[in-house]
Write a structure and sequence with these properties.
With about 160 residues, the protein is α+β, with helices and mostly antiparallel strands. It is built from four helices and seven strands; from the N terminus they run E-H-H-E-E-E-E-E-E-H-H.
């Protein structure tokens, strides 16, 4: 199963880094270049294990995902419940650890895993998915790192 990953050291402690990663509209739109629309579903007031989220990407693709883990300030994991036809499976995980040798900073690591369908197309689809998702995850974590220094985001956590 293909996996893509990106990391960044951000100048905030893990609890703040985690909180930035969980912002929703309108704060989310300040830093996340991937998300065009995102909200919690089923009347949920805040993220948590079992909560579903609707996300529309800048590409126009929509996905409903569910939090499968939620452990502030260290990690969060999500899985696709419904999404683009070409994903048989899609999941994401984010880890936040104190940055080595940088007090008050956090190493944030984001990881996606996926499986394309149909199975016979995977030899072609997986490398394309890796290339596209690698590009997106790197842009996204760079935006996230900017969000961790944006006073408008930090002052509204």
């Amino acid at each position: 199963m293909p996996v893509v990953e990106a990391s960044a050291v951000v100048p905030v402690p893990p609890d703040v880094a985690f909180a930035v990663s969980q912002t929703m509209a309108p704060l989310r739109y300040r830093w996340d270049p991937f998300v065009r629309e995102q909200y919690l579903m089923d009347g949920a007031a805040r993220p948590g294990k079992g909560v579903r989220t609707f996300t529309r990407s800048r590409h126009g693709l929509a996905m409903v995902s569910e939090y499968v883990s939620f452990a502030p300030p260290t990690n969060v994991g999500m899985k696709m419940v419904r999404g683009p036809w070409f994903f048989e499976m899609f999941a994401g995980g984010w880890r936040f650890t104190p940055a080595p040798d940088q007090p008050g900073h956090t190493l944030a690591t984001w990881r996606y895993s996926f499986r394309c369908r149909p199975a016979w197309l995977r030899p072609l689809a997986d490398p394309i998915g890796i290339r596209l998702l690698t590009k997106d995850i790197h842009k996204r974590i760079q935006g996230y790192a900017r969000g961790c220094t944006d006073p408008a985001v930090l002052n509204n956590l």
